[in-house]
Amino acid sequence: MDMSFEEKSVWIQLIGLVVGLGGYAVVAGLMLSNGVDALPAFVPVFAVAIVLVVAINVAGHVVAAISGRSDEADERDQL
Fold first, then answer.
1. Of 15, 41, 46, 61, which residue is 20 to 30 A from 55 by alpha carbon distance?
2. Helices (H) and strands (E) in the chain, counts
3. Section 3-11 average pLDDT
4. Cβ distance 45 to 23 under 8 Å?
């Protein structure tokens, strides 16, 4: 499967969001089901989720940039 860097970037961002915010949704749901309903208790969990999203995006883009150094821009990249 031959993808441009921009297409790889979109997939990396999607995966980062699904993993980070999906994990937050699971943990927040478990917290709610255990009776935690104070908003300040969710802030550190959300902060960890955001850091995870950023880390996945940075690592994924580094790997995509290194692995695709010879990719040429195609007509989709001209827009």
1. 41
2. 2, 0
3. 90
4. no
